[in-house]
Amino acid sequence: MDQILTHWRTSGAQWAEYALPKLLIIVLVTLFFQSVLRVVTRKLEDFSKEAHVRTGLRAQQLRTLASVIGSVGTAVIYFLAAMQALPLFGVDVKPILASAGIVGLAVGFGAQTLVKDVINGFFILLENQYDLGDTVKIAGVTGTVESMTLRRTTLRDPNGAVHVIPNSEIKVVTNLTRDWAQINLTVTVDYQEKSERVIQLLQAVADEVYADPKFKEQLIAAPEVLGIERVAGAEVDYLMIAKAQPNQQWAVGRELRRRIKETFQKNNVRTPGPAKVVVTEAKSSGKSEE
After folding, report:
1. What architecture is domain 2-110?
2. How far apart are CA 188 and CA 163, in angstroms?
3. Does the model's pTM come out above 0.85?
4. How far is it, in rounded angstroms, from Cα 130 to Cα 147?
């Protein structure tokens, strides 16, 4: 019995001398990283409450990110700490690591797409690539963002159809309404019309729309007529551009087309065909004819 007690005392003294300092270091490092993680998540939560962050979805996204970072970070920190601490108590962690590897491999194969969805969704939210109400083109679909989660993005296209897109399918994001949107209109008239007269009439329309209180709020700056964009046969194209507030470019574009048509009719501006005014989106194959 005395030998057993002596062995325990000797083993305990050796453990306290060699293992206890390592255990204390592991505990201190774990507490340090846990504190850093709490600071990061708290900063995200505080940022979601600031005035310049859009209320609703964006604030909710930041809180979701804080929760995900906190949960995943805590699990990783404690797992690594346990793997470092268990050998100090004589526990072989190799079987645990092997089992974790097998489980991770199985989950990875079984939920590979889901993992890609969540990882891609995490970075979309973190980088704020688009927000609720933005008009975007992703995965070949153009529409307005109606909802966003870590797994999928829901768009509604101009025809009213709803598209649910897994985040793993999103490779390139084209945001058509971030900060501002540009309107590029190509106005086609007859070759015989004098350029100065056409430019003056178009600029008058641009100034008239910008002076209208209803549309001035939707515009960032007055529309401009840049001049002749193309000469082809009996047709000449003139380019007009305007910067509009997000999601307002279509309403402003329709008003510009309407007023261009009325101005051309009033001033007898010759167009490519009888009773036809051609105003197209620049670099677009579609035409709006009246």
Report:
1. Orthogonal Bundle (1.10)
2. 36
3. no
4. 11
